[in-house]
What does this fold into?
Amino acid sequence: MCPLPYYTVIRSKDHRFDWRLQLVLYAKEHGQRAAARFFRCSRRIVAKWLQRFDQEGRAGLLDRSRAPKHCPHQTPADIEAQVLRQRLRTPGFGAERLKHEFELPCGVSAIKRILRQHGLTKKRRRKHQRKRDLRHIKAAYKPFTRFEIDVKYLTDLPAYWPQMQQHSLPKFQYTLRELSCGAQFLAYASEVSVTYAELTVRRLLAHLERYGIELRDVLVQSDNGSEFDGSAEHKRDRGFVHTIETLFAATHRYIPPGCKNANADVETVHSTIETEFYDIERFDGGADFLGKAATYQHWYNVARKNRSRSWKSPLELMSQKAPKLDVRLLLLHPVLLERYELTDPIRAAPHLAHHLPIHPENEKS
It folds into this structure.
């Protein structure tokens, strides 16, 4: 004979609770021995649920957690507080980077658990289709011969916008990313223009030439934006592409139209600098901003370990791939392009003495 009717079982939301309730009610009416015989269990089980029912009522028949009350390997509270403190200081750092940068005295899995328990994790967007992994191809490039350039708009950053308004800080960041070692080089301006894009790449190429890089081996890749002469129908005797290919004898290449991932390396540092720099830094003015931007860039190029490059910094990769290169290649300071245009010589060469970039206001004329 079945202890509970079939339809009673399938209609129940909690089969175990109902079975225990029926067991207890049957035992109270017919005794423990009869209940054990009817429900086909031991008298000890009947006694257990009777005792809990008498002490706690129906709540005593619910399942209890079987988790251990004490965990000898649990992360101490002070270490957990240290993990949370570092995470709040650098919200863009994941568990692995927190471990590497701050040398936290616990494992990566423990850090992930702590962040998850305190709601400090971000859900990654799933990629519906994995793109071809080009890391091994980029790793084989000769250092300081492949670059990507792009402009980051700073006007849509919530943490930076009020400071930009208050202190008249730059609105746009011109970014160059080296592909072999992963270094980045920054410049800033209040406009998006061919002039400032040209000044940015001119500074870099002159810097590379100064420290022994053969410019004929250098390739600079950009998107098809107008600031990179992407809207020009014919070649001109001035501008971004002319500076790269004619004045410095390097090579320029546009990414294919509609292929946004072709400039993925420079877009990656745009995302990184937003969470690691703009979201957490506070600025007192233009000089303070430029100083902190230089500190961040130098830390990124010299000390910050890159997860996608076997947790090695650009300096470590450069020393490994080309130990004879001058480490000062990584130390090109960020500048405000408006001031740089008027005060700093770009390249000491006679044939460039009268080649001055046009002002952004006169580009369309």
In short: The first helix runs from residue 6 to 11. The beta strands are 146-153, 172-178, 184-189, 219-222, 251-254. Residues 210 and 329 are 9 Å apart (CA to CA). The radius of gyration is 32 Å.
